[in-house]
Specification:
- The structure holds 2 protein chains of 2 kinds.
- By secondary structure, chain A is an all-alpha fold.
- Chain A has 2 domains: 47 residues, no CATH class; 230 residues, MetI-like fold.
- Helix content of chain A is 75%, strand content 0%.
- Chain A has 14 helices and no strands.
- The two termini of chain A are 41 Å apart.
- In chain B, helix 2 packs parallel to helix 4 and helix 3 crosses helix 4.
- In chain B, helix 5 links the parallel strand 7 and strand 8.
- The radius of gyration of chain B is 25 Å and the shape is elongated.
- The longest helix of chain B is centred in the middle third of the chain and has 18 residues.
- Chain B has 2 domains: 229 residues, P-loop containing nucleotide triphosphate hydrolases (Rossmann fold); 111 residues, OB fold (Dihydrolipoamide Acetyltransferase, E2P) (Beta Barrel).
- Chain B has a 6-stranded mixed beta sheet, sandwiched between helices. In chain B, strands 13-12-11-14-20 form a 5-stranded antiparallel beta sheet, with no helix packed on it.
- Chain B is built from 8 helices and 20 strands.
- By secondary structure, chain B is an alpha+beta fold.
- The chains are: A mainly alpha, B alpha+beta.
- At the A-B interface, helix 9 and helix 10 of A face strand 6 and helix 2 of B.
């Protein structure tokens, strides 16, 4: 083939084109290496050092032996599951409603859904504290309107944590779910009805499976964000809702034990990775992020 | 599959407005049992709206729709028991071919071996036997179309609706499927309402055609009558090619560029009319040829010839300058090509069709 005229020059052009394309990702790649890859490796390294500076698995051993660590992990998963579950209950009907609206109205509503993300997480969390505390707005109104007599414990416990976390997480569920639902050709539902499916069966047999990739994507995002959530559980949980993230913070701020904190971080990272992998295998969540989203 | 019992459809006064625009304007239409009726019209004419009213997807403002003797207008789509083939097929992408076809059976409580047997038989009818295990995305356009058809037939509906089912296929496949659809209809005999904007498809397949424009039925008749005796200029223009020449009828005579014409139908009252001339119905006479009785003769001069393969299109001018098109088959007598040459044209009396003048109420 190389004896064709200009074969070499054409090959060289193709190579340059590919190099040019590759160079586009260089800034992002560098950033990832510096801010992600290096610290994560550093984290691994710290987690297998003893306090004296030798190689040791003592941090992992302690995590295994002390039941309080296990409880923290169980609690973290429980809070994350509850938050995700409530987000589904609230977000699924909302996303469905939005996907049925005319595009223009739906866009406006999406702005409203995303509005909370424009405010700082800290501000939102403390705002909830103000609203939910014993002498807060909600308790005052509830008592004045005679709905309950004693102030309800709405904050510094699981309830407050869940309220705050659901508020923060809901947009992350609604966004992918809404776009998956929007992409469903309504002719599928017409076809289902035409073939004899009432509204309920048409939903379960056709709409739900077609929207499932969007739901899995949203659930995964929310659940993973919840696992590492720190600010909201720390502020609204009032020390009663211990998440892995709070323990990591304690290990560093109170005990200055970087090794223990790193080991916790590593275990959380591995569990999360395992979870993503499992979810990818179980559902077609990967397809949402690639080609099938449009179909 | 056994020959289904079929149902007549009676539509009366069905009206649907969007704002102030009539999508359907007091439509009355009776579709006979086992009939293949085509709704033909340009996009936006209301033909698809009418079909979706039949399927139950569009809620009209008012009117009556009866399948047989049963009023259906308020019955939700999933209780109407009509088969429908969608324009983009609407095959469920998360199911195999077999699961798609089994879907209506499953909803009717038919499962297991009985379902599998009927699915396979339906697939065989559309010549896709053995394709059940495939995914929908593994099929070509023509195959998807057939699966959609199998899915619509498998529960043996007595009424079948088709919304431009062939429009996404290429020309050759489309013509092939037209014949297959027609054969299936003859075999199964369900009342079929077919929507298309393709006049040739309508002429090929239908028992009767309803030409729709502006939410109203312009003409309802057999393909031959629609083509040869269109009710007005819109129908004549929409189906086939034609030239329209304004003519005057006065005291029982019809003159075109000073030349008298006879018509098969009795002449209408005096006044302006439109003469419809189909290019293929005009014939160039050889020198000295006498077409015999039953033909009108027209003198004209040749303006230009356009070669189109199977035929040539001649542009001719009448003595008063009126331009006409004449289609001349490529075989037989050589087609004249010299511009300015004098020609004699023959037009059968029954092809001399007068239409209401432009602007007349239709």
């Amino acid at each position: 083939m190389t004896d064709l005229p200009n074969a070499f020059a054409l090959q060289r052009n193709a190579l340059w084109e590919r190099l040019g394309l590759a160079s586009l990702i260089m800034p992002a790649l560098l950033l990832i290496i510096i801010t992600m890859l290096v610290p994560v490796c550093w984290l691994f390294y710290l987690s297998v050092l003893s306090d004296a500076g030798n190689f040791s698995l003592e941090h992992y051993q302690r995590m295994w032996e002390q039941p309080s660590y296990g409880r923290t992990f169980v609690n973290t998963f429980k809070v994350s599951l509850l938050t995700t579950g409530i987000c589904i209950l609230l977000g699924y009907p909302l996303a469905y409603f939005l996907s049925e609206l005319p595009q223009r109205v739906a866009n406006l509503c999406m702005v409203a859904v995303l509005l909370p993300l424009w405010t700082s997480l800290l501000v939102r969390t403390y705002a909830w504290l103000v609203l939910l505390q014993r002498k807060g707005l909600i308790n005052n109104w509830g008592i004045e309107l005679g709905m309950w007599d004693e102030p309800l414990a709405l904050v510094h416990n699981l309830t407050g944590t869940l309220i705050g976390m659901v508020h923060v997480m809901l947009p992350f569920l609604v966004l992918p779910l809404y776009s998956a639902m929007r992409a469903i050709d309504r002719n599928y539902l017409r076809a289902a009805a035409n073939l004899g499916a009432g509204p309920l069966r048409s939903f379960w047999l056709v709409f739900f499976p077609l929207a499932l990739p969007g739901l899995s994507a949203g659930v995964l995002i929310v659940f993973i964000l919840c696992l590492g959530f720190y600010v909201t559980p720390a502020v609204l949980g009032g020390g009663k809702v211990i998440m892995v993230s709070s323990r990591i913070a304690n290990d560093i701020e109170i005990f200055f034990n970087w090794g223990a904190a790193s080991a916790l971080g590593v275990v959380l990272l591995l569990l999360t990775a395992l979870l993503i992998f499992g979810a990818m295998r179980l559902t077609r969540v990967g397809s949402v992020l690639s080609d099938r989203a449009a179909s | 599959m056994a020959r289904n019992s079929s149902l007549p459809i009676t539509i009366s006064q069905v009206t649907k407005t969007y704002g102030k625009v009539f999508a359907l304007d007091h439509v009355d239409l009776h579709i006979k049992s086992s009939e293949f009726l085509t709704l033909l019209g340009p996009s936006g004419s209301g033909k698809t709206t009418l079909l979706t009213v039949l399927a139950g997807f569009t809620r009209p403002d008012g009117g009556s729709l009866k399948f047989g003797d049963t009023e259906m207008i308020t019955v939700p789509p999933h209780k109407r028991e009509v088969g429908m083939v969608f324009q983009n097929y609407a095959l469920f992408p998360h199911m195999t071919v077999a699961a798609n076809v089994a879907f209506p059976l499953k909803l009717r409580g038919v499962v297991g071996a009985e379902s599998a047997r009927r699915v396979e038989r339906a697939l065989e009818m559309v010549r896709l036997g053995g394709y059940g295990a495939r995914g929908v995305d593994q099929l070509s356009g023509g195959q998807r179309q057939r699966v959609a058809l199998a899915r619509a037939m498998v529960f043996e509906p007595r009424i079948m609706l088709m919304d431009e089912p062939l429009s996404a296929l290429d020309k050759q496949l489309r013509e092939h499927m037209q014949i297959e659809l027609r054969q299936l209809h003859e075999q199964l005999g369900m009342t079929t309402v077919y929507v298309t904007h393709d006049q040739r498809e309508a002429l090929t397949m239908s028992d009767r055609i309803a030409v729709i424009q502006g939410g109203r039925i312009m003409q309802l008749d057999t393909p031959r009558a629609i083509y040869e005796r269109p009710a007005n200029r819109f129908v004549a223009e929409f189906i086939g090619e034609s030239t329209f020449v304004p003519v005057n009828v006065s005291s029982g005579h019809l003159l075109l560029a000073g030349q008298p014409l006879q018509t098969a139908e009795p002449l209408p009252a005096d006044g302006q009319r439109l003469l419809m001339l189909r290019p293929e119905r005009l014939r160039v006479l050889a020198d000295g040829e006498d077409p015999g009785p039953g033909f009108n003769l027209l003198a004209a001069t040749l303006a230009a010839t356009v070669y189109q393969g199977d035929s040539s299109l001649l542009q001719v001018a009448l003595p008063d300058g009126t331009r006409l098109h004449v289609r001349s088959a490529s075989i037989g007598a050589a087609t004249p090509t010299e511009p300015g040459r004098a020609l004699r044209l023959a037009l059968a009396v029954q092809d001399t069709v007068l239409l209401p003048p432009d602007g007349a109420a239709t």
